[in-house]
Amino acid sequence: MKNTNAGVDEIAEDAREEFENAKQAVLDAYAAFLEAKKHLKRAALAAGVDFRETANERLEEAVTRARDKKNEWQDTTNEYVKENPMTSASIAFLGGVLFSRMFGR
C-alpha cells in the first residue's frame, strides 16, 4: 500500500509541476504581450499615429477578460484536481506518456 501511495503522490506531484509550468508559460506570454504593446505604441507614436483612448481601453478590457478567464480555468482545474485526485493523476500520467512519445524521438 505504501508503494501505491508513493506512486500516486509522485504522479500528483508531476501533475502539479505540469500545471505550474503551464501557469508560468501563460504569465510569461502575458508579460511578453504587455512588452509588445509598449513597443507597438512607441513605434506608432514615432510614425505619427495617434492612439485613441477608446482603443487602449478596449485593449485593457480584453486583457482583463483574458486574465479573468485564465483565473477561472485555473480555479476550475484546481477544484477538479482536489475533488478527483486519482483521475487527475491518471490524466496527467497519460498526458506525460503521450507527450514523451510524441516529442521523445
Shape: elongated
- State the share of residues found in helices, binned by percent: over 70%
| Poorly predicted residue ranges | none
The ordered H/E elements are: HHH
Question: Structural class per helix/strand content?
Answer: mainly alpha
Please give the alpha-carbon distance between the first and last residues: 35 Å
In total, how many domains does the architecture comprise?
Answer: 1
Topology at a glance:
Layout: H1 2-46, H2 53-83, H3 85-103
Helix pairs in contact: 1-3, 2-3
Describe this structure as you would to a colleague:
The chain has 105 residues and is mainly alpha-helical. The protein has one domain (2-103). Helix content is 90%, strand content 0%. It is built from 3 helices and no strands. Helix 1 (2-46) crosses helix 3 and helix 2 (53-83) packs across helix 3 (85-103). The longest helix has 45 residues, at 2-46. The radius of gyration is 20 Å and the shape is elongated.
In short:
With 105 residues, the protein is mostly helical.
Features:
90% helix; 3 helices; mainly alpha; 105 residues; elongated
